[in-house]
Amino acid sequence: MNAWIRLIGGGILLFFMPLTIGGIADLFAERSGVLCMCVEGIMVGGAFFGVLMIRLFAETMGVWPLLALSIVVSMIAGLVIGLLHGFAAIHLKAEQNISSTAINNFVPALTMLISKSVFGTDNFTYSSNKFIIPKVPVLGDIPVIGPLFFQGAYATTYIGIVLVIILWFILYKTRFGLQLRSTGENPQASDSVGISVYQMRYAAMAIAGAMAGLAGFTYILTTSYVFMGSVYGYGFLALSIVSLGQWKPSGIMLGALLFGAIGVISSTYSVIPVLQNLPIPGVFYSMLPYIITLIVVAVTPNAHNAPAVCGEPYDKSKR
Amino acid sequence: MLKKILMAKRDYSGVLSSLLAIFIGLLVGFLAMLVVKPSAALSGLRLLVTGGFFNGLTTFGSVFFYATPIVLCGLGDAFAFKASIFNIGGPGQMHVGALVAVWVTCNIGLGAPLSTIIGLLCGALAGALWALIPALLNAYKRVNIIITTIMMNYIGMYLAVDILKKSNIFDNTKNQSINVPRDLRVARMGLDKLFVGSAIDCGFFIAVIIAIILWFILEKTTFGYEIKAVGKNRDAADYAGIDAKKTIVLSVLISGALIGLGGGFMYLGWAGKYLLGSNTQLSEGFTGIAVTMLANNNPIACIFSGFFLAYLTQSGSYMQAVGFAPEIVKVISAVVIYCSALSRLVSEYLRRKKLDYLGREQKGDLR
After folding, report:
1. What digits encode the pLDDT tens for the residues A63-87?
2. Within-domain flag for B268
3. pTM value?
4. By C-alpha distance, which of B340, B313, B220 is closest to B29?
5. Residue range of the domain that includes A227
């Protein structure tokens, strides 16, 4: 029983965490009024530079300093890429869909270029088992919840949970968060009371980039052992979760839970006897997350909760 | 010099921003090479510029072959883009189109030219079909087409690979599609006599004809006007009596058809390209976006920008020799897309500059 809880529950947690972090990243960007379709690209960047550190320093560094280094590097990489999009979207008033697409194409190509130059192949492996915490003392002994959350989970999962709580607090309980959200609703009004719209949006993109970078790193570290220049569309899944969750952290987490379950079915159907015996071809399970995303975005009602000016460059002279 | 260009009757600001985008793209490519391997960066850059003639006309002829799918893909993207629809489902539409085109051509058994023609048309149809769901969702529910097309890319890739593996056009030992019989490939019309040993076929010239037709549709017909009106402002067009939903669906379907056709040309050609049995997306579908961005969504200009990017891709395939991955070309084309996103800034600057010149001239008149 415990083994099953760990397989299914732990699996859901693996997909849940990067999707939640990615969703929160996009939430920050969109709440400030910047359309960030490039979460996918930023995630690839964070994932690449994070696991690159693990690959390069696996022998020379201790386990926890190495993890800390990789997380910081992946967040910095994400931040830089996020600001690249921010620069185009905020200062240069670019078409944000296009600059996002540019980022989504640029980052994977760059990672492939570096990986081929460094390792000679377009993919490289890394080991992530040592970042698993076998059992948290005391908490791990609680029935059901223990094996679900506190046995054999990756350290990144806990870091992610803490960060999500902090970010929720920043966005909804601080002055900075209120100002940030105001620039996504009515930037002219924010400007008139002395809030710098540009500054707020850059701050939002910096946070969004760093978080998306971390999301990519978490995803690739925990669900794979080889990096092939892609996070397989999970950045876009995070985007669809944001609109499914009506631009609210609680909604995003619920959406991530749903997609986490789908992710588990899609990746472990071959070991789950019930699914294996169904007369459904295996390829269907591979396509499942993408099909569900399509259905979700199709049936999500038009959001009245969405930021009012998302995707519009700020024009001071407009009212 | 700048003044002369700006004061000309025709508007050259689009051309200027495209040239700027190419320049910045090559610059970033060069910088990336400097970072990766400084000693070989210069020879890498030289190879990038001259690689299209690496083996003389043989290589140059093959550039025509590689240009065909990405020109068609660029045309497709441009057509949807005119209606302000950002179809980035190129990889999926191309994959599905290519699979259907190759399968039909190999299995229909109607002899040399007819099988290929029907195969290509079926490929176009499949590409259009693959664009249908995102088109409907965008037209009727205003669902962001970037998310839906990306999802269709993944679904299309998994489905196409799975069907390929179960079909009779799959070579199990090589894990790729079979050799298309020589007489069923796209006709070469003696062009291989001119470019000996190259992969050239008549595909590029069909793409040119299609580009001209698209230009005609966009500039000289009611349908084209409707597309552009919807692209400028969907609600205003709807209010003015244009069926915006129908226009959007049609433009995306045509876009998908062109991209599917491009896929057909790529795998029914002479370059020895095979549909793979591994789960990889067709990156040519993304190159199409760079093609249309560089061309400012102008169908005629797509021919040149597509040819240019195909030339770079061909050069990129030789980059391994000096120690760089061919991905350098993808980096360049992504930078080109990024720069195109900034084209508003460039044209704004040029417009201001032009007004500046105009103002100065008028003052001169008064004196």
Report:
1. 899 999 999 999 999 999 999 999 9
2. yes
3. 0.93
4. B313
5. 2-129+139-232
